[in-house]
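Weekly structure sync - notes
Attendees: PM, LS, DV (DV joined late)
Agenda: review two folding runs queued last week.

Item 1: First target. Sequence and structure tokens pasted below for the record.
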Amino acid sequence: MALLAYVSFLAAGLVLNWGALIAGSRQSMPPAPLTAVTYFIMGLLAAVNAQIVIANLDAVSWETADEMSAPLLIGVLVVGAGAGAIGWFAAGGAHGVPVDVPLAAASASSGDWSGSASNGWVAFGATLPVLLVVFVDPIWTILMVAIAIVMIAFSSVRVDAEEQGVTINIGPFGWPRSHIPMEEINGAAAFDVKPMAYGGWGYRMRSGVRAFIIRSGSAIRIERSQGPDTLVTVDDAAVGAASIGALARR
């Protein structure tokens, strides 16, 4: 019963989190409220996971672990509220943060172009779920490993532009992968972006754009003739945007 309750809570939290992101992107919700809502939900999930780990430390099995008490429930809510507040202020509060600040134009490279970006902090954070495996029942191992894999996947990105189109390879193994045919590209531009303006790191959705946010800083926004634009954070974005634009005009 405890396992079913935990899985149900985790699933509900993820559904609410993604629901908030989708609703916010469709309604062009300001960055701060959207970030506060998603971080509040993720704070709740993190606090509940921590409580479960602590409850299982001295238990023979998860079936004999202590249930969540009223003080712990209040603590979980406080952590969630704190995470939401951090998200609100990190995203600029009522003033918001600048989104897609244009970068100075650069000359296009000759021929094809490739660029990459990485975030060592995200890769380091991926080790934490793995370390928790030794403290929990083996049944949670799959969940912990899955979290680590997702974090590693969004710790780096590589962008390849050629005559056939632009390919975005996520993670050290190049998967998941997104390909944009060149005939669907109207142009590209370079911007300076803030992760919190999109609700954080990872794959993000906002009105009219789908973003691969690995880190803050330079990014390429690809204007598409079909569907929302694509934005990806990458080093040397100004040259990359110019190169993609030159390839699209051929």
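Item 2: Second target, run right after the first with the same settings.
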Amino acid sequence: MRWADLDSLNHVNNVVYLDYAAESRAMLVADGVLDGGPVRRTVVEFLRPLLLSRRPVHITSTVDGDGLVQEIRPVPEASPFARVTTTLGEPGRLIASSPADTLPCQVRRSDLGPDGLVTGVKVFELFQEARILLVASRLKALSAGRFVLGRIDVTYGQGMPWRREPYEVSSWVSRVGTSSAAVESEIIGADAVHARCSAVLVGFDLEAQRSRPYTDEEREAFASLSRPGSP
């Protein structure tokens, strides 16, 4: 673990869990346990906050066909802090949803892997950047530290090469509950949807370090980005 792994709440940043999982998956490939093929889908469940430790994290991996489940713990006997489920296989073609609110998404050359495309971990980071920008510009009722990411589900489409002009991220709210809301996003290029993301944002009490119900003002802010027919 590194100091740079932490977010503004002093928890391990949600993207870093993907880094941990990717490192572990690479070791499985090197040991011949897993084929080093492409990834079609990744789901991360954030079960409880992970704080900085001098000890390395412990990852338990279970391989089942084209699926890989990785549970991240600070020590082997502890309950998992996060669960990463990866589906291996060639990504399919993604069809764009109806138009929604869009924000720019700039790719850096350092986001690219050896194949010249944005890596899976960096796709998660781009979605994170888009959510932060969405909250700052469209969901101003939500203040920093008042919500956390509970679950994220990313489906990969056509690979993303570097380009000078930004990609676009289209985002909308598909569900608003008592203490959680689901934000859907798509990274869109000139003629392709490169990735699709569903993220569950959970109300969070920073002082008590636990979930909390959203206020009426916060729920109204989420609802303002809903599409017709969304619950």
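Discussion on item 2: The longest strand covers residues 193-205.
Action: LS to circulate a short write-up before next sync.
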